[in-house]
Amino acid sequence: MAINCKNFIGGNWKAGSSLEVIENMNPVNFEKVSEANISSADDVLEAIQHAEAAFYKWKSIPAPNRGEILYRIGEVLKERKHKLAELITLEIGKTKVEAEGEVQEAIDMAYYMAGEGRRMFGQTIPSELPNKWAMSVREPVGVIGAISAFNFPVAVPSWKIFPSLILGNTVIWKPSLETSAISNEFMRCFEEGGLPPGVLNLILGGQEAGQTIVEDPRVVHISFTGSTETGRKVYQQAAGHLKRVSLELGGKNAVIVLKDANLELAADGVVWAAFGTSGQRCTSASRVIVEEEIYEAFIEKLIQKTSNLTVGDGRNDGVDVGPLINENAVQKMESYIASAKESGSEILHGGKRYQKKQGHFFQPTIIGPVDSENRLVKEEIFGPILSVIKAEDFNHALQINNASRYGLSTALFTKDVNDAFKGIREMDTGIVYVNHGTTGAEIQLPFGGTKDTGNGLREAGQAALDAFSEWKSVYVDYSNQLQRAQIDTDQLFSHLIQDETN
User: Fold this and answer.
1) 426 part of the active site
2) Per the confidence metrics, is the pTM higher than 0.70?
3) Among residues 282, 291, 380, 459, which one is catalytic?
4) DSSP labels for 356-391?
5) Strand pairing class (431-434; 409-413)
6) Residue 456 CB neighbours (<10 A)
7) Separation CA 302–CA 306 (nearest Å)
8) Nearest-CA neighbor of 333 among 292, 277, 381?
9) Does residue 282 have an active-site annotation?
10) CA-only gyration radius of the chain, Å
11) How far apart are CA 239 and CA 219, in angstroms?
């Protein structure tokens, strides 16, 4: 029986006001998993009203006490880990292992940010004037609009929600409509954990809802995860209201394999990075750049390991690769295969949908060698297609890597410590891995990218506190006289020196 999903606004569960209904099907067998009335602008406006009213109460709760609530939410997430993971697998097809890992990431983020309630450091800074105290403190910004994608329906929202809450902000969260059941269950964890009404509001909506969140002046910060094209529109719309915006957008991530690398390890890393989550990660590796000298040997290992992958229903043990999210995604993969054939690139492995399987399955695919100017190398594919590119040497590989308009994640396989540190310095991406694939971010480090992957702000780690807070500078003058910084400083300093001399 399909799950009937609702919004959560001001502490109450209620259906979206639109008569339009979204139905989500299991991408393996097309059975209906969830349904929901799509939210209208009126639903969003109601949520904003509740979030704005709750903000002043929530921010007045001392941060350590807000942290205690986040700890309780983390405990609820821990208790419901398997239920959430099952829904992730059911609604979007992710394998059990990956789904449970994703929920664990949210648990880790809850605990980490809860601890920030007692570590929300500012600074005390010496003043240039006597009998004057100077310090800085963090302040919440207000109502946050958090818009997330389908591929990490629990982990990515946790990067936005937990930092926002510990700082004293309130949140309007609009997840992908393709994850309605997961979003409802995740929201219940906050409710059960004791989060006050109105502090976090869930909106199951589409473009109208998203546009209302972006344009309403009461929502002061937009945190968006999705495609670069949509992110650019969000940025432009929000700029008209001088809103703060944090963007985590597309990627065209590469793995560089040098001739001295452990090829067995490199092949394992590439297979996991390219085909985990069916290639539907912003950090998925869709390019592997290999030194010419080892090209044939590496390709042999790569094809062998890829052919050993089990594609199927993520609910079954031993499945490595699940389905794509929908039929449009499968057709997109087919269009890239057609383009590869037109350009003369060789399909080394895969290249087709699974005709014998009912769901949205596509074979893990390896294409190579591919010219570095081919659209397969330039465009974000967001599926299980990997292009292999030959490089003359390490410098050439770095040049190919950095030519991308995206800058999220790069991996380098080498045994040479000098090359490793050269790569760390030269690769122009927000994340760099040495002797590991392009995926696997940990929550205590900043997450985000350069160039068309984002706008410079980071989510996760300490950097998330900067994204979702304002700095307030505070001066306390207890001299009992008017002191003017920069104007009276020299005169006061001279008097102090003279007094000491006398």
Assistant:
1) no
2) yes
3) 282
4) TSSSS-B--EEE-S--TTSHHHHS---SSEEEEEEE
5) parallel
6) 11
7) 6
8) 381
9) yes
10) 25
11) 13
Within 10 A of 472 (CB to CB), how many other CB atoms are there? 11
Q: Which residues pair with 410 in a beta bridge?
A: 254, 432
Q: What is the pLDDT along the chain (502 residues), one digit of tens a residue?
A: 799 999 999 999 999 999 999 999 999 999 999 999 999 999 999 999 999 999 999 999 999 999 999 999 999 999 999 999 999 999 999 999 999 999 999 999 999 999 999 999 999 999 999 999 999 999 999 999 999 999 999 999 999 999 999 999 999 999 999 999 999 999 999 999 999 999 999 999 999 999 999 999 999 999 999 999 999 999 999 999 999 999 999 999 999 999 999 999 999 999 999 999 999 999 999 999 999 999 999 999 999 999 999 999 999 999 999 999 999 999 999 999 999 999 999 999 999 998 767 899 999 999 999 998 899 999 999 999 999 999 999 999 999 999 999 999 999 999 999 999 999 999 999 999 999 999 988 999 999 999 999 999 999 999 999 999 999 999 999 999 998 988 877 666 666 556 555 5
DSSP 3-state assignment of 27? coil
Q: Amino acid identity of 399? A: Q
C-alpha dihedral sign at 393, 399, 400, 406: positive
**What whole-number distance in Å separates Cα of residue 96 and Cα of residue 88?**
8
The CA distance from 236 to 364, in Å, is 36
DSSP bridge partners of 476: 133
CA-CA distances (angstroms) from residue 173 to 37, 47, 158, 188?
16, 10, 11, 13
Catalytic residue (choose from 86, 102, 116, 248)? 248
With CA atoms as reference, report the closest residue to 98 among 385, 271, 322, 308: 322
Taking CA atoms, 471 is separated from 1, 137, 139, 140, 465, in Å, by 49, 6, 6, 9, 10
- Spatial contact of 249 and 170, defined as CB atoms under 8 Å apart: no
CA 305 to chain centre: 28
Per the CB < 8 A criterion, the answer to whether 252 and 406 are in contact is yes
CA pair distance 337, 302, nearest whole angstrom? 19
